[in-house]
Amino acid sequence: MINPPETVFTDSHRVSCDGAAEIRTAGGYQPAALGHPRVWLEIDEKGFVECGYCDKRFVLKGGPADQQAA
Fold first, then answer.
1. Pick the residue with more confidence: 35 or 68?
2. What is the pTM of this model?
3. Of residues 53, 52, 45, 59, the one with CA closest to residue 12
4. Is 7-69 in CATH node 2.60.260.40?
5. Could you write out the three-class secondary structure of 5-40?
6. pLDDT digits (tens, 9 = 90+) for 8-58
7. How far, in Å, CA of 61 to CA of 69, rounded?
8. N or C: which terminal CB in the chain sees fewer CB atoms within 10 Å?
């Protein structure tokens, strides 16, 4: 079974992703070398953006793609 990509809800139109979210543990942090290079992404009029490396989806809270607002 393939797990769906992680979805992150944010208040900002500009977000960064380094793919290391799953690597960070209680109080500890592993270098981003275990994830992917940090990239900056801009959420457009669709209300979301996906990371080209890890497919993580960033959704603007209250935007057109925010299903929680409905």
1. 35
2. 0.76
3. 59
4. yes
5. CCEEEECCCEEEECCCCCCCECCECCCHHHCCCCEE
6. 999 999 999 988 765 555 555 555 456 788 999 999 999 999 999 999 999
7. 8
8. N
